[in-house]
Amino acid sequence: MYILETRSLRKDYGAGDQVRVHALRGVDLQVRRGELLAIMGPSGSGKSTLLHILGGVETPSSGSVLLEGIDLATLNDDQRTIIRRERLGFIFQSFNLLPAFTAEENVALPMELAGVASSEARKRSADMLHLVGVLHRRDHIPSTMSGGEQQRVAIARALAMRPALLLADEPTGNLDSGNGQQVTSLLRRLASDHGQTIVMVTHDANVAAHADRLVRLRDGLIEKDGSVEAVARTAADKPARTCLFRGAI
Q: Any bridge partners for residue 39, and if so which?
């Protein structure tokens, strides 16, 4: 079953004769429930634009983006806000934790804002912090935690509303190799053991290697879509483009 699907997805910046950038030029993509999908590509390939549209942050110029069968492109701003709050989770490179709030409060706050009772939000917060391995840091503020711990708290926050889809934008970009490996392994476990669907943009081939599938973008189009091994093998067969997979992007 596809939990996410795009059809002929296009995004142009500018209008009419003033169109400056064709960021996406007809992207057809399907993501199965419980799949960990990695997206790679050089700067300007459309990775960030695609992630923003999948998350309902931007709307496409044309085409469809279906989340659990609902076309986000047809929704108004208020409807997309509800979808983002209730069915989508976001993980950012810079963690985006509130600096004066504890780990537990950071995870609980979005639930409370969505109308979840405070007691239930705190309970679910503890459950999520336990799941990602930082329950022992529940009373600590971000400045007293390592980058890896902060990103785990951010992942717990993203999971708190039990989203259908988790979107990760360079989730290891601000981490050293050890913490990056731990976060990558956590995302892999969330997909494999808990059936969480994850779409992850990354420039790091070592991170992408943990995915079920790799999509490589170039110039707003899908250049390759397949298993990590198959896409890597294709890149190795084309030396001029090997850098797309090896992280020199």
A: 201, 215
Residue 229 CB neighbours (<10 A): 10
Can you tell me whether residue 215 is helix, strand or coil? strand
Distance CA 105, CA 138 (A): 8
Q: At what angle do helices 177-194 and 147-159 cross, to 10 degrees?
A: 20
- How far apart, in Å, are the Cα atoms of 40 and each of 44, 146, 190, 214, 249? 11, 27, 21, 7, 9
Residues pairing with 215 in the sheet: 39, 225
Contact (CB, 8 A) for 244 and 215? no
Q: Looking up tokens 């989340």, which residue turns up?
A: 67
- Note the residue count of the chain: 249
Token couple for 100: 């004066």
Better pLDDT: 235 or 168: 168
pLDDT tens readout for residues 114-151: 899 999 999 999 999 999 999 999 999 999 999 999 99
Strand (E) or helix (H) holding 52? helix 47-54
In sequence order, the β-bridge partners of residue 172 are none
Per the DSSP assignment, residues forming a β-bridge with 216 are 40, 224
177 pLDDT above the threshold of 60: yes
* Inter-CA distances, 5 with 64, 67, 225, Å: 8, 7, 14
3-class secondary structure, 73: helix
Cα(98)–Cα(228) distance, integer angstroms? 35
